[in-house]
Amino acid sequence: MSMLPGAYLTTDNTFVEETMQPVETALEAALLVLRNGGSTIAADRSLTNILKGFHQQEVATIWRLDFIAATIRVENRSSTFLRTVGPVGVNLTRASAATVLAEGVAQGTVQLAVLEAELERIKRIPTPYNRWLMMLAAAVAAGCFSQLPGGDWGSFGIATIAAGAGQYLRSDLVARKLTARPVTLICGVLSALIASIGLRLGLSQVVPATLMASVIYMAPGLPLINGFVDIASHRYMVVGIDRILNAAFLFLILGIAIVFAHTVVL
Amino acid sequence: MDWPTILLNSLWAGLFAAGLGVLLTAPSRYLVRNLLCGFVGRGTRDICMGWSLGQHWSTLIAAAVVVMVAVAVSRRHTVAPVVLICGVLPLGAAVAMFNLILGLMRVSAATGEALTRASVVLTASLGTVFTTSLAIAIGLGAGISIAGFLRRDEGVAV
Questions:
Q1: Staple partner for A80: which of A14, A71, A134, B91, CB 3.0–4.6 Å?
Q2: Which run of H or E residues covers position A73?
């Protein structure tokens, strides 16, 4: 058996690399959860469950939104694994599949031999809904949301069209690998402009509800709630604060988009 | 109490929650749960407000109810955060956040008497965002604790 760079022999001639492989796999599963919009608690639980499946639980971890560090101690020597998280997207089907897989490993219903192949399969799971369905969902969500702060049927129609068009552009920009901030700004401006034109044409008199609803499909609810959950757990305070600040920044971008469109058109 | 309006608003909130679930790429099995949590959450909030309870107490109770409904309809002992997100977003935190940001924009552009008025509105919006978010956070925490107590043999986690 060949040794990887950095691996060393223990006194009983077993490769430490073999001891470390479970940690690598567990980190891979945890990263899969984090990178696809899962909470830090879910990522940590996945890591713990996979290590449990390997009967290895003496691993210390540090969680950040930009990296995960795991330290393992074997034969009085400690090794630390550092894995960068990278851009965080949203595919909760993948995050959910990774969590379920890890639970299966802990319960012994998933064989360890197929674990890596399963992780690779989960990484390739596409977005469960196609572009048109997402567009429809954004339109319906925006239309329904416009009614909650007191919108009328005019604001329902305006918000529906504005959000649908914005989501269509968003899918296009995401496919071009643009990051969340420019995507939020560009789509926010487009949706708010359409909504402002509708208001200018007199289709509705309820200005705040219409403008807010037109961009609600981009509200960063996922990082906000994940951040709250992280902070409430008292174990991932830094990740939680990071997520909430990111969400607040995206809200600010949406606010700028609304004010820009409102100033230009109205 | 205006029951038709409460029912209609709850329906809008439920549909909004289901639509948001699709946007957040939640697995399809979660969409009905999202709809239910959105419907029940908003309904609870509006009913509580109809009983003359304050907006923040109503939001707190509604957030706790959202968690309990999410736990009740979940087969496993973990509650998916996406169900909670979609359930609590119609409770008013997003509207309060937008009002705050718009207030911030107005303050930066206003002068004289308008600046004073805008500052007061901004301070009020900031307070609303803080108290609404806090009410939701406490409500979620309370809901998880209550559900954990009721299902103490299995435990409940997010």
A1: A71
A2: strand A67-74
Task: Yes or no: say if A245 and A224 are a contact pair by the CB < 8 Å rule.
Answer: no
Residues 6+ apart with CB under 8 A from A248: none
Domain borders along chain A are 16-123, 131-265
What is the value of ipTM here, to two decimals?
0.88
Quick count: other Cβ atoms within 10 Å of Cβ A250? 21
b/e burial code for range B124-139 (CB count within 10 A of at least 16 → b): ebeebbebbbebbbbb
Torsion of CA A69, A74, A78, A80, to 10 degrees: -20
Confidence of residue A3 (pLDDT cuts 50, 70, 90): very low
pLDDT band at residue A1, thresholds of 50, 70 and 90? very low
Tell me, yes or no, if B120 comes closer than 8 A to chain A by beta carbon. Answer: no
pLDDT digits (tens, 9 = 90+) for A127-182: 889 999 999 999 999 999 999 988 899 999 999 999 999 999 999 999 898 888 99
Three-point CA angle B22, B25, B29, nearest 5°: 75
Q: Which residue of B has its CA nearest to A218?
A: B23
